[in-house]
Task: inverse folding
């Protein structure tokens, strides 16, 4: 049996992510090598291998966030993820302020139609 894959996420970023997720009791961190959260088959946060955090926001709030924090849409593996904002490091370290966006993201995803499962029974 192969050894479990070890995460390459910097420990400080992983700890900040865990602290953020702990602010919302309905949210569970997933992923062994990368961190992410999902609800009804829709991912809404992503912590990449470099420690960059992305949060999925509805359009109006996303536009306001991009202007307020002077950041960009999140890009992963050369692809721009249209609904995800890249979280600046200063905000990532401010769990109290960032937790508001986590809750907003969760509420937004809860409005989407659940994706059918791909697991075989």
Result:
């Amino acid at each position: 049996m192969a050894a479990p894959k070890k995460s390459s996420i910097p420990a400080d970023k992983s700890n900040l992510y865990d602290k953020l997720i702990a602010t919302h009791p309905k949210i569970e961190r997933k992923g062994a090598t990368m961190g992410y959260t999902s609800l009804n088959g829709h991912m809404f946060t992503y912590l990449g291998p470099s420690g960059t955090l992305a949060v999925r926001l509805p359009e109006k709030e996303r536009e306001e966030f991009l202007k307020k924090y002077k950041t960009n849409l999140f890009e992963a593996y050369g692809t721009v993820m249209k609904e995800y904002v890249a979280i600046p490091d200063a905000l990532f370290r401010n769990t109290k302020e960032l937790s508001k966006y986590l809750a907003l993201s969760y509420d937004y995803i809860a409005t989407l139609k659940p994706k059918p499962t791909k697991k075989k029974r």
Remarks:
- The mean pLDDT is 92.
- Strands lie at 35-39, 42-47, 53-56, 73-76, 79-86.
- The chain has one domain: 11-110.
- The chain has four helices and five strands.
